[in-house]
Design brief:
- The chain is of the alpha+beta class.
- Among the domains are: about 1-60, no CATH class; about 125-250.
- The protein has helices at about 30-45, 120-185, 190-215, 225-250, and strands spanning about 10-15, 20, 60-65, 70-90, 95-100, 110, 115-120, 255, 260-265, 275, 280-295, 310, 320-325, 325-330, 340-345, 355-375, 380, 385-390, 395-400, 400-405, 410-415, 420-425, 435-440.
- The strands form five sheets. Strands 4, 6, 9, 11, 12, 13, 14, 15, 16, 20 and 21 form an eleven-stranded antiparallel β-sheet that branches. The chain has a four-stranded antiparallel β-sheet with strand order 8-7-5-10, with no helix packed on it.
- The longest helix is centred in the middle third of the chain and has 62 residues, at about 120-185.
Amino acid sequence: MSGVPDFQPTAVKLSPGGGMHLYSPLSRAGIMLVFCALSACGHRGGGNAGGGPPGGGGFAMPVSAAPITRGSIAQTFNVTGTVSPLQQAALSSVASGTVLSVGPQIGQHVSKGELLVKIDDSTLRAQLQQNEAALESARARLAQTLANTSGTASSSNAGLKSALVAEQTAQANLRRTRQLFAQGYVSQSALDQQLQATAAADAALREAQVTAQNAGLNPSSSSAAVADVRNVRAAVSQSAAAVSIIQSQIAQTDVRAPFDGVVTARNVDPGALAAPGQTLMQVSQLSRVFVDVGISGENVSHVRVGTPATVSISGTTGRSWRGSVAYLSTAAAAGTLSYQARIPIANPDARLRGGMVVNVSFEQSRKSGVLLAPHGSVFQTEAGYSMFIIDGGKAKSVPVETGLSNDQVTEVSGAGLKPGVQAILNHAATLQPGMPVQPLPAQPKQAG
């Protein structure tokens, strides 16, 4: 380009504080000279063909810009957390045997009570049949004992009633005989015979009473019949208990899901030998999960039970989960200065999985009704914080005071700042105050 002196490109770097340092022979004045030369070329080209700002030359530096707004800002701090299932069960069998079938695969959903693993129970079922036969036999013996005892008791009761009537009759006859003997109507031998008959009737009554007592079925009595019935009933109970034990062992050969969840481990296949205590399958409940985080001592004052939290996954945009702290340890973990917090999170699509590492954001402070500059517009210089705004189509450097900041906006205050003023984002190091600038069209946001 005629009229433009030759020069070597200037290397520009940003200091850790955000200031700009030029470290080639080309000075700021040199940059302005180049800019003026380019502007002159634009004038020679005629008009405003470069799309520059009104009233400017033909050249304007293209810049990204976004408006300053007024609103609320929350400053947050971030920690790393780990996802834990709401419930997780390592399923094993008490019984040993050959695995007959294995249902779901890893990642499949299962319902509470669903059969997951079946272990061979043929030996137990044969033993169950044997125990059931013994139970039926014991029940038959009980029925026979009750029938025999009932018949004996009925006969004994009838004999007791007959002996009681005979004894009462003998007593009545003895009273009459004594009266007649006193009146001289009967002899001494007749009285003696009646006394013997009455004694015999008393003896027969006592014998009938003993027999009836032994044959009685009153549970509170200690009769032989009651003892026989108790023994047979005990045998029935023992046989029934043996049947229940085998039925319980058979049920233990069915490994079922303890809750609705997802299969996260499958350690056996059909034909394998299952042993007691061996983990056959693992089920995790992921419809709700816990996010466990460690809060440092400097931030623990900002967290309490009920504090809101936002969970996100690194590398995933446009998706976050919200919850609040449900549990917070009151003592630091051993060997650390962090306090464990647990956050329940609704996870209906199971996007969050056990063991996943996530980012957790907690609100530290909040302000409302303040000026907010876009992220990337504020930079640091040796004199403090500053930013470029567009004023009359030209770049203008404005010193600013900053407040709260997050990854989207920064609280700012300074002369000339108000809602709607365009702030230049991530400006080039060659941008100087007073340079004409042209805002680039806003890029549409991509769906996350």
